[in-house]
Structures are given as structure tokens and as C-alpha cells.
Specification:
The longest helix is centred in the first third of the chain and has 14 residues. Helices cover 39% and strands 15% of the residues. Strands 1-2-3-4-5-6-7-8 form an eight-stranded parallel beta barrel. Helix 2 runs parallel beside helix 3 and helix 3 packs parallel to helix 4. The protein has ten helices and eight strands. The protein has 265 residues and is α/β, with parallel strands linked by helices.
């Protein structure tokens, strides 16, 4: 799994209907700017605004287009386990390289229930998997103990995207192949310098792909990075509403990312 991925938006038409053809130009733009891994249908992709059928439609579109020479990650999360299983089963025979499993929003499962949710999804796939812990959006926070329980049983869990406390993982030992991703670009340099993370799932990379890619490459080689400059770029992206800013950027470039779904206006 690549140590940098960019979480891309989902293109919608002005009536908010899904526009899968819009992905082609977004993917091409990212490839042209040296990005080698994309996250589809994540938080930046307005995942939870979409039905399961719409997400299945996206999977089928990528199966048809294939998009060689770039790692494809697909975000899976649903309140009902059976809905998430439908997605995982479709992904098992798809062109997607990695499945990113997010925890169900709103219902706030126990640690045991969350572990059971992941185990059920893993029983339907042999693909590489990354877990996505996003307590600010879901209301659920996976503990390091629960993470290690899953890692001890499932070697195909190769990554972990964390929006919570990165520092709590500092005293833990993880397999060499396992990548801990910072979710988003805020405090990017500090996260790498303190050793709290070994990868980045970027939002700002939609607007500043070359700058973010270069910064991550330098950090991975223990080279000095202008943190003030990077934080300035990141603040431009997240000021107001990041998804709106990202879609407006693509649209200005002539790349049809369309609108956001209300209430994001």
C-alpha cells in the first residue's frame, strides 16, 4: 500500500445525481501530478450521502475503465453490516486494490461490536484492507487494544487511517508492513517529525497535489520541509468547507466535479 493517497471527491450533476463519468478527468489530473494512489468514496467523496446502489455503480464504473498504473482504494462504511457486506463482496472481484473499512456512523457500537463488524466484512474478502477510525464523524473511537486484536488475527489489514489521537500509538509495536495514515493534512509535518504516523491520506492533495507529494517524500526521507508553507496551503483548502473548495477548484480547471449534495451548499 502506498504511503500517500489523495481522497478524491465524488462528481455529481447540478441536480445532485451521480455522475460517474466525471471521475475520469479527476483521476487523470491526479496521475498527471504524480499521485500514485486514490481513495474513492471516503469522507471527501461524500460517502454517506450515497446509497449502496450508487456506490456499487461507482465500483462497476471503475471496473469498466480500469485506470492502470494507480492504486485504487475504496471506502466502505454503513450503519447496517449487511449493506457493508454487499459492498465488500462487489469489491472482492473488482479492480480496487485496497478496501478501507470505516466504522458505522451514529450508532456508536461497543469495541466488541466494532471488532465483530470488521471481522464479518473481512470474512468476505482476501484483498488488502485498511481501517478508518474517525471518532469526530462517527461517535466511535477504536482503541489501540481493539486494533491489535484485529491485527493479530488478520494479516491482510495493512493500514490504519486515524483522525483521533495519533500519539497513543507511539508506545505500540506494529508490523513492518503496517502503515498508520494521518487522516488529512493538518499538522502534517509535526505528525511525521514526532513519528506518530508513517503515511498520509490527503485532502489538500486535490488542490496542491505536487506540493503535498513533495512534502511527504521529503518527510519519508527525513529531509527538512517548510512546515509554515504547507500549513498555509492546507488552511486554504479547509477554510470554510474543504469539499466545496475542492470541487470549486476542479470545476475552475474545467474538470467536472459538479456540486456537493445539500446541505453542503
Amino acid at each position: 500500500m502506498k504511503k500517500l493517497n489523495v481522497a478524491i471527491p465524488t462528481p455529481f450533476r447540478e441536480d445532485e445525481s451521480l455522475n460517474v463519468a466525471g471521475f475520469e478527468s479527476i483521476v487523470a489530473y491526479q496521475k498527471q501530478n504524480g499521485i500514485e494512489s486514490l481513495l474513492i468514496s471516503g469522507s471527501t467523496g461524500e460517502q454517506h450521502s450515497m446509497s449502496i446502489e450508487e456506490r456499487l455503480q461507482i465500483i462497476e464504473y471503475f471496473n469498466e475503465q480500469r485506470f492502470p498504473d494507480i492504486e485504487l482504494i475504496f471506502g466502505v462504511s454503513a450503519i447496517r453490516t449487511r449493506d457493508a457486506v454487499r459492498l465488500v463482496r462487489a469489491l472482492e472481484t473488482s479492480v480496487m486494490d485496497v478496501i478501507m473499512i470505516g466504522f458505522p456512523p451514529y450508532i456508536r457500537p461497543t469495541q466488541q461490536q466494532a471488532v465483530g463488524y470488521v471481522e464479518e466484512l473481512l470474512s468476505h474478502t482476501s484483498k488488502k484492507v485498511a481501517l478508518y477510525n474517525n471518532p469526530g464523524r462517527t461517535g466511535f473511537d477504536l482503541t489501540p487494544e481493539s486494533l491489535h486484536t484485529l491485527l493479530s488475527k488478520y494479516p491482510n489489514i495493512v493500514g490504519y487511517k486515524e483522525t483521533g489521537d495519533l500519539q497513543r500509538h507511539m508506545e505500540r509495536t506494529y508490523p513492518d508492513y503496517f502503515i498508520r495514515f494521518a487522516a488529512g493534512d493538518v499538522n502534517l509535518v509535526d505528525n511525521f517529525v514526532t513519528g506518530a504516523t508513517g503515511g498520509l491520506s490527503s485532502v489538500a492533495g486535490n488542490i496542491y497535489p505536487q506540493e503535498i507529494r513533495q512534502a511527504v517524500e521529503q518527510l519519508l526521507h527525513n529531509e527538512q520541509v517548510d512546515s509554515e508553507h504547507i500549513e498555509t496551503l492546507v488552511s486554504r483548502v479547509i477554510s470554510g468547507h474543504a469539499i466545496m473548495n475542492i470541487k470549486q477548484h476542479y470545476n475552475r480547471l474545467g474538470i467536472d466535479a459538479g456540486c456537493c449534495r445539500a446541505p453542503i451548499m
